[in-house]
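Batch 3, record 17
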Amino acid sequence: MSHRIRRGISRRDFLLGGAATTASLTLPGWLAGCASRSVLPSAGPMTPGYFEEHFGVSEGLIRKVMGAALSRGGDFADLFFQHSSSTNLSLEDSVVNRASTSMDLGVGIRVVVGEQTGYAFSEELTEESMIGAARTAAGIAASQSISPPVQLEGRTHRQYYDTKYDWRTVGVGRVIPLLESLDERVRAADPAVARAQIYFSSSQRRFLVVDSEGRTSFDNRPTTRLIVSIVMEKNGERHSNRGSMAGRAGMELYTEERLSALLERALTRTRLLFDAVESPRGEMPVVLAAGSSGLLLHEAIGHGMEADFARKGTSIFAGRIGERVAEPFVTIVDDGTTPELRGAINFDDEGNESQRTVLVEDGILRGYMHDRISARHYGVESTGSGRRQSFRHMPIPRMRSTYMTAGPHARGEIVAGVKRGILAESFAGGQVKIGAGDYSFYVKNGWIIEDGKTTAPIKDVNIMGNGPETLSRITMVGDDFEMDFDGGTCGKDGQQVPVSLGMPTVLISSITVGGSKS
Amino acid sequence: MSPSLEDLTKRTVAYAIEKGAREAMCGARRGRSIRLQYRDGQLDRMRESATASIWVELYVDGRYSRNSTSDLRWRAVQEFIDQAIEITRVLGEDPFRALPDPSLYKGRSEANLDLFDPSCDKLDTPSRQSLAAAVADAARSADGPIVSSSGSWSDNRSESFQFRSNGFEGHSLVTSFSISAGVTVEDSDGRRPQDWDFAAARHIEDLPEPRTIGENAARKALSRRGQRKLPSGTMTVVVDPQSAGRLLRYFLPAMTGSALYRRRSFLLDRVDKQVGSHNLTLIDDPLIVRGLGSRLFDGDGIAAHPRVLIERGVLRSYFIAVYHGRKLDMAPTGGGTSNLFIAPGARDRDAIIASIEKGVLVTGFIGGGSDSTAGDFSIGIAGFEIEGGELGAPVGEMNIGGNHKTFWNKLIEVGSDPFPYSSSRVPTLVFEDVAVSGV
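Prediction for the assembled complex:
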């Protein structure tokens, strides 16, 4: 089994300031601290009453469906109602000439017995259809029925993005001029630009999680991404590259400062490809640039620290908690609480609080990322890592935003210490084999380092390593931490979820570079 | 109850036209899939899904959008179309967007592709459980330090109907079945190598014995103990049929109309030119009986026919969908792959290996990527050392790299052994002088 992450080429500046102020809001009009009030008060579209108002999902109906889910017993059950919509626009030949919209609605029903899971979903929120799905999910269990909870308890959660935002109210007429102006700027910036495509996506997901203990949570997540993709031609040679940015945010994400940085990145990284030389190959020191090279952590350690692999014994990190795995200046976390990042979540898809989970602290392996099943297996609290692609999927432990905190070394000092190696600057994706620990990540742009200086650019080279071995070979960590404000889409068990990445400049003393130069 | 897929598509298209679309297309799909997984001797997961959705292409005032929804309450569909038409009207015009010329719909094969296995309706929970358990038990009972093993069964049934306002109608009803096994073993250095095996088919009777999949996964995982990393070098690389399809898939994006139009293709202006060695003959055949990629018409509704894409190394045809065909002034050929074949050679994988003095057998790729504009690629590999015509130690944490423009000229032999359980029926591929990196 292997797991992949896809990503755009990232921006390297971090969203500062204002974002943090959203972190202490709570959902308005939600229970007002009174646990006995109805779970689904009649309310506007921004409140938990959303599914009742629009789809007739009343508290009584929820109890009935929960009753069917528990009709053959089980340790635990949950219902995940989802309504989401997305709008994508694309610009080609300087015209925004294609839109694609989608709407998704349904409920996923899960019944858990020990570590066994029964799962079914319904795309119709009718009583008949939901009860049918609940009975199917209940098929995993085979004992006495359990009563559904007498009352549902609405929970409040801290907020790391604006849950009152609604992309559905943002007209495409507001977005089109933005894309047109970016196209104009990219073409004006360099006569070598032969083609430009710009892709914009926005989506809004509302969901309600109710579990068999009556815990009930509602969220409304905005997400957006912008990709600028360029082809340049010079003297009959052609190269393409792109820049992108993303967040759990609304239109306010697209400030002039970030947009101009995005264009600059796309242009610079395409121009560099014309000067690229063949990359050296074999084992050598590799410097990872600050920011999106957090991809290394995602592949080299992140997946191996997801507790479903650990509890099954299929991770190379299984049973190694408390062991030293890296130098004392290495601290690695997975964090759902950094505001407005793609990987931010207010709570996970099982209703558990989001948190900052320390995976490696001062070089010591500290803890796994848990969903409800693994937390119970290990007798610990969930880390709020139970995520799912949609109501069609069961939650499993997943990463959110994975990064290494800043270390003691200056960037210049790190590069200066390399006699012959490469600097990896932008990335296109990676993959890992959890058990063997072997992973890869694909470098789109990089540099050759000779005698402590970057010399010629390189392109399209895959790097191969082994997770625990690489961790032990991180010999320098920069003081220049950057969060990548783009992030990727992580695939595991056929489920895609948005994640983010961050990293200071890091030196790995030896790793295999897959260049083609003899 | 809910309307038939045919009624739903016709009703949706009629509504879109009524609301101002000049032309419209609607596809509707209804599917059911059941998947069971056993892990370490017990039923671990059981997942059942029943899905229904529509997708709608709207052509409004010379503008275009593509939309999809799973909320099929008729009032919700109406609102969804209303909103999509409103959005479409705000876009820029695109003179190349229109439904295909109806003459392209003609000539659809009358062949019975036999893509539906009625026995799928007879499966019940106990029979599915025993199939999954058979795979899992075989994996679990293999001799060796197995840490964890799993076996899965899945069956899928999918029906779809497409309707276009200029006269296209197309129906399809298909089944697919798959079995897979994954095994993790303990190695002496603390690593826990894993491997897996799978098979998929349109009919249950075409699947191999479930236990063979479990046995294969266990054998493959156990053989990965004691992995080494070879020194970097330039050597012969043999790619196993089960992995060769992935390598081929890095080549194909450069053959699409969208890549050609965007000038993101190393195959621009290369028709009738040599793009690989004379050992490379690549065929796309949509009309294979029981084929996993078989179909009577493509995404544009164009009648599907077999095509030679590369003939003895010479590029003959691209994948041109209707829209990009108009932009490129090229005749549409079908926008994507159906069943891909590489014309087989004379010997199977093991016979080929026996004739190789020194090289690497690749049994799995990891990560990697490919630049379809310039042709550069670099991919992680796992496999085995070949020495003196025999397989040696497992190797991994290694990589192959090159450029597609020259790499496929190094294809010195093609095996006789295409992988049957995929829509890419690719045999063993042998490349010489490949840049391999390791230590």
